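#random but structural
TW: two for the price of one
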Amino acid sequence: MPPTAVRAQPATRHRELRVDLAVESALLAGGHQLVGGVDEVGRGAWAGPLLVGVVVVDAATVPPPAGTRDSKALTPRRRRELRPELEAWCVAWALGEVSAREVDLRGITKALALATARAVAALPMPPTALIVDGPVDFVSGRLGARRSLPHLEVRPIVGADDLCASVAAASVLAKVARDDKMSAMARRFPRYGFDQHKGYGTRGHAHAIAAHGLTAQHRRTWSFAGQEAPHDDESGSVE
């Protein structure tokens, strides 16, 4: 049977929360030598890639750098300040990317699994346990992930990015990387404002699509309304 998702205690999404290694430590004490935290950025975007970050810790990993938390609770400047600290803090980290076209072809759940598999494959040594943010284990049994990692334990936790240091760190590293990609994309497609909304559904983005059409970086299976669409604030404020 799939593991039951753990749910965080009700809380204001971005209140001051202290992430720690409690969940990771429990998995390590249970026999795992390496535990990875997984988080994605770009899931609900109209344009641009989906990125998944994986951050790996072990039993010797010390508490995370001060101020580590979910990327959406941090300013762009603070995320960039934290990036080198987080890279030095963890045992290993990697990113997996899926293009807008691949999202269209596969659907978002399989795209998430594929991006996660690519991130894990890029690690020097794969973890045997993964903590994923959310209620669903989207890794096991998809795209051969279980066959390539037969001993992988996947622990879905609702609100893991607010609780687990490895997941929060993964969210920061993925967010900074994707923001950089969207800023570079803005230079290629200056009419769309990708450096401002990062590909998410804003009124300005909808107006640009209405005026200029879709680029090769847009997800063509998404619904592009002529008004601001709901999103998860990964659109990211800019300084």
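TW: number two ↓
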Amino acid sequence: MGRLLERLQGLALRLEVLLQTQALASAAGIELLLELFDSLISYRARYQRHEDLLALTDMLVLDAANPRAFAGVLRRLRTELGKLSEIDDNSLQPLLALLPAQGSGLSLEALRDADDSQVASLLHGLAVELGQAAGTLAERIGERYFTLAHGLDRRV
């Protein structure tokens, strides 16, 4: 789970920074993003040289079959969180509530009739939200499953 949370935070931060700097307005920026998401070969196979924000969103955000896309990372993270229910079912729902209920939290419906600036704005908001959710989730898991003493005085 730690690896998935780190991946989610890293991908969210990379996307957020590239959107803030408007680097995705150039072919070099798009290629950099695809490299950072480790999806360049898959993207080229699917879209050839078609470089636009909707195609990037499809591959890097919405594609649950892509293990480097937000939807793919979140799908695997939900699966791993589900395994914690075997340990303690009471704490699972608050942890799952930190993540989007399904997919990546962004739908094709939200992108319908959106221009590039609107898509960029939605992606930026999603990246910020997912980065924060991953950090909060990591803290909560750490507090619940890795903090041993919770303030107990254990003098020997």
